[in-house]
Amino acid sequence: MLHTPVPRSRRAKRALDKRAPLIVENVKKSLIVTGSSTSEWVRDALKDLHDLKKPNSLRYTRKNELRPFDDATQLEQMSRKNDTSLFLFGSHSKKRPNNLVIGRMFDHGVLDMIEMGIEYAIPAEFLDQVKCTVGAKPLFLFQGDAFEFRDDYRRLKNILVDFFHGEFSDGFDLKGFEHLISVTAGPIPEDSDRPGLIFFRVMAIHLKKSGTKYPRVELTEIGPALDLRIRRTKYADEKLWRKATRVPRDLQPRKVQNISRDGLGNKLGRIHLGKQNVEQIPLRQMKAVKKLRAEKAQKERAAAQGTGQAMDVEPASP
Questions:
Q1: Rounded distance between C-alpha atoms, residue 241 and residue 235, angstroms
Q2: Is residue 284 part of a domain?
Q3: Structure-model confidence comparison of residues 128 and 68, the more confident one
Q4: Could you tell me the residue range of the domain that residue 229 belongs to?
Q5: Is 155 exposed, middle or buried, given 0-12, 13-18 or 19+ CB atoms closer than 10 A?
């Protein structure tokens, strides 16, 4: 159990109040940690991903003896100290070369994490040196059916979007999108349970004149370029996952009576009417219907005269 700090001054109390749960949470901060042994690919990947996450990223350049899948206590303490909810850990060993572990925290405890190996890498410094605004939100492009049908790929997609997600906004400006993160799932052999390669690419977006009101879009690769492969995963149990993804009551949409939406988002309304007598509803009748009614009334009148019974017959329409 981690010790819960008790404020001893007003300044400390204000600092703890900032870390308290909010209805609308702040931008999630990431913690970039370097392992005790790293390779050049791992160091370049940590640096480039840290630059993409700026200014909501904190990087530890000193070596740390950590093994998140065996014991994440030290990592959780670092998360609590720096008030970070995302982490990226890089290491290198003979058994797991060029290793990256990306994960999330909930209440400063590990929620879920995925371990990936770098099969090939090109640092950003060797590609086009196009600068993007610090703190700009990226566009995401996920390509491949694996992100829809495989659980490990779906969870990786969710973690990556959560890792680079910035502030929530209702609208956006087209010129505000300066870079694109493309994640492509490579082919997976049918006779093998080993995941395929995942191609992580970062592109700069250039808006050119096209002669119409819509600009022509050009992409330039700015790095990093990483070929990744999933190795190990650790997911939260169902109870902890429901607790972590619970939506506050104040943010839940209020249910309006007799109004619903279909699968496409169209609004549907239900109208309640009183009991209606269909026979008394005045409707427009065609000439053929009037002739049929006149013939029916004439037959009923003739039948009544033949039997000698008095009968109220509706007069024929003129």
A1: 9
A2: no
A3: 68
A4: 25-244
A5: middle
> For residue range 191-211, what is the model confidence (pLDDT) as tens digits?
667 788 999 999 999 989 888
What is the per-residue pLDDT for 1? 47
| 280 alpha carbon, distance to own chain's centre | 55
Question: Taking phi first (over 0 means left), then psi (-120 to 50 degrees means alpha), and beta for anything else, what does residue 311 get?
Answer: beta
Q: Confirm whether pTM is higher than 0.90.
A: no
Q: What pLDDT shows up at residue 318? A: 46
DSSP codes joined into one string, 37-97: S--HHHHHHHHHHHHHHTTSEEEEEEEE--BTTTB-HHHHHHHHHHT-SEEEEEE--SSS-
| Selection from 133, 130, 155, 129 nearest residue 142 by Cα | 155
Tokens of 164: 């680079």
In one letter, which amino acid is 262?
A: D
Q: Are 293 and 315 in contact (CB under 8 A)?
A: no
Q: How far apart are CA 300 and CA 103, in angstroms?
A: 86
**Domain with 112 in it: what CATH number?**
3.40.50.10480
Total tally of structural domains belonging to the chain: 1
Residue 299 falls within a domain, yes or no?
A: no
Whether 189 is covered by a domain: the verdict is: yes
Nearest to 218 by CA among 231, 203, 202, 237: 203
